[in-house]
Amino acid sequence: MTKSFNLPASQSTPAIAADWDTGLLSISGDSYPENSFDFFTTTIEWIERFLAERDAPLRLELRLVYMNTSSVKAMMDIFDMLEEAHGKGRSVSVDWLYDPRNERVEMLAEEFREDCSFPFNILAQA
Questions:
Q1: For the purposes of burial, counting CB atoms within 10 Å of the CB of 55, is it exposed (0-12), middle (13-18) or buried (19 or more)?
Q2: 41, 78 contact by CB (below 8 A)
Q3: pLDDT value at position 1?
Q4: Left, alpha or beta for 42 (phi > 0: left; psi -120 to 50: alpha)?
Q5: For residues 77 and 30, what is the distance between their CA atoms, to the nearest angstrom?
Q6: Strand (E) positions, the chain?
Q7: What is the CATH number that goes with domain 23-124?
Q8: What is the DSSP secondary structure assignment for residue 20, as one 8-state letter?
Q9: Where are the domains of the chain?
Q10: Please, which residues have CB within 8 angstroms of residue 103's CB and are 6 or more apart in sequence?
Q11: pTM of the prediction?
Q12: 99 C-beta neighbours (distance < 10 Å), count
C-alpha cells in the first residue's frame, strides 16, 4: 500500500487525496457510491496505518456536498477512529468547508461535530 494516494472524483464518488508527509486527508464532492464500504476501505486503511506508524498530526479536510446514508456511516466510522486516536492523546482535527448557500451541509457537519471531542471546524467558503 502506498503512503499517499489520490482518487479522482466520479459522478457518484468524491475526490480523495491522502498525503502521508503532511498528514492531510482531503475528501471533496458528492458521495453516493454503489457500495460505500468498498469505496472508503482504502481511505479507512490509510487512516489506520497513518495513526499506527506516524506521530504527526492528522488533519481531515472535507468539502462534501452530498452524502447518501451509507457514506454518512463510513464518515461516522472515520470520525470514530479519530475520536479514539484523540482519546489516546493524538493530534487529530477536521476542517469541514461548505458553501454558505447550502444549509443542509452545514447542518450535517454540525450533527457530526456533536459526537466529536477533537477540534472540528465548520467553515463557510464563498
A1: exposed
A2: no
A3: 54
A4: alpha
A5: 18
A6: 5-7, 15-19, 24-31, 58-67, 92-98, 120-124
A7: 3.30.750
A8: T
A9: 23-124
A10: none
A11: 0.94
A12: 13
